[in-house]
């Protein structure tokens, strides 16, 4: 067989080619390199994607706890108690009943696996507690807040927002779990629990007297720096990156599906715990209902940081958005707003007015 190959090669070589080869090897090399076809990146396939796997857990709860901070620049900010979720993937784009599948194998993650917290936001928030936002907190509660706002426990995979793992990144898909859309500890590939402290700005659980498909809790964090830090995280971990609004009020919104993946009626979120005395394991804590989540109440929110897909102008799932996924809520202090601010009355009261 070898002689035949040599004969074929000799026969195919034209005199002109042999002349060019004998004249200059460098010229031949240059000719080959300049004639190489250009590599063009293939456009991402236009296929549907799944919604975040954020079905609430009603019987079993995470073993660790987290806080959710909210953002607002002015103490006079008008905070509405009921407002529907806006940040979550629209229902008409992908129904929450879809099961997690191997779609990620066919649609590469828009956010690269090399993305880490330390790379996208290298400078954490400098101030985590603003005295103006904790003026109604007694000294024992203040000591509690100091501990919670600086909490970092690698073994429990739980961190205060200010102290996230610098090397935390989007997880990986294994034979048993798909954590590609959750911020994970790279050593364990487990979603990290994020604690955020803040005052309730608004909540959304019920629509027309029934649990809505999605619920949300929006909070004002204990400092504007922490709110801006969360804003930068959400922006940098989205693809393409979202613009950071330096004039943003600093509210942090956490969202979760109340609709089961398997279908059926939405189930009211019930992972709400009384933490006014001490934080313990969930199984040892008293559970509360949503009536305790009043505006201005001080809470600790436990979240995961997740990403979800959106369609671009061409109908392709190339846009990735980051958001905080609600895991649990812990009540530290009931609403202590003066009764005058709680009143439903509108208008200005002018004492002694007679016209």
Automatic annotation (TrEMBL):
Residues 1-12, 21-38, 95-114 have a biased composition (Polar residues). It comes from the Eukaryota. Residues 50-67 have a biased composition (Low complexity). Residues 1-114 are annotated as: Disordered. This is Uncharacterized protein.
């Amino acid at each position: 067989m070898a002689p035949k190959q040599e004969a074929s090669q000799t026969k195919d070589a034209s005199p002109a080619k042999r002349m060019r080869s004998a004249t200059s090897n460098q010229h031949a090399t240059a000719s080959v390199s300049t004639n190489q076809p250009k590599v063009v990146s293939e456009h991402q396939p236009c296929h549907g994607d799944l919604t975040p796997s954020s079905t609430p857990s009603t019987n079993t709860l995470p073993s660790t706890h987290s806080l959710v901070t909210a953002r607002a620049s002015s103490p006079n900010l008008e905070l509405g108690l009921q407002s529907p979720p806006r940040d979550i993937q629209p229902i008409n784009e992908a129904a929450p009943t879809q099961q997690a599948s191997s779609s990620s194998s066919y649609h590469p993650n828009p956010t690269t696996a090399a993305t880490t917290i330390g790379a996208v936001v290298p400078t954490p928030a400098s101030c985590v507690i603003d005295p103006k936002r904790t003026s109604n907190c007694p000294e024992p509660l203040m000591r509690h807040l100091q501990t919670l706002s600086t909490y970092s426990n690698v073994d429990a995979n739980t961190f205060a927002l200010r102290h996230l793992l610098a090397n935390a990144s989007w997880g990986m898909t294994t034979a048993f779990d798909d954590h590609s859309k959750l911020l994970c500890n790279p050593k364990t590939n487990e979603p990290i629990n994020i604690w955020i402290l803040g005052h309730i700005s608004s909540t959304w659980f019920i629509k027309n007297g029934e649990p809505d498909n999605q619920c949300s809790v929006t909070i004002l964090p204990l400092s504007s720096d922490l709110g801006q830090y969360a804003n930068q995280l959400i922006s940098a971990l989205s693809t393409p990156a979202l613009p950071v609004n330096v004039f943003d009020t600093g509210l942090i919104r956490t969202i979760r599906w109340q609709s089961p993946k398997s279908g059926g009626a939405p189930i009211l979120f019930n992972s709400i715990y009384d933490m006014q005395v001490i934080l313990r394991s969930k199984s040892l804590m008293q559970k509360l209902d949503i009536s305790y989540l009043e505006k201005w109440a001080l809470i600790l929110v436990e979240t995961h940081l997740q990403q979800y897909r959106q369609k671009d102008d061409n109908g392709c799932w190339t846009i990735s958005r980051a958001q905080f996924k609600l895991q649990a809520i812990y009540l530290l202090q009931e609403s202590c707003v003066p009764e005058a601010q709680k009143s439903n009355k509108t208008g200005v009261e002018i004492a002694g007015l007679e016209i």
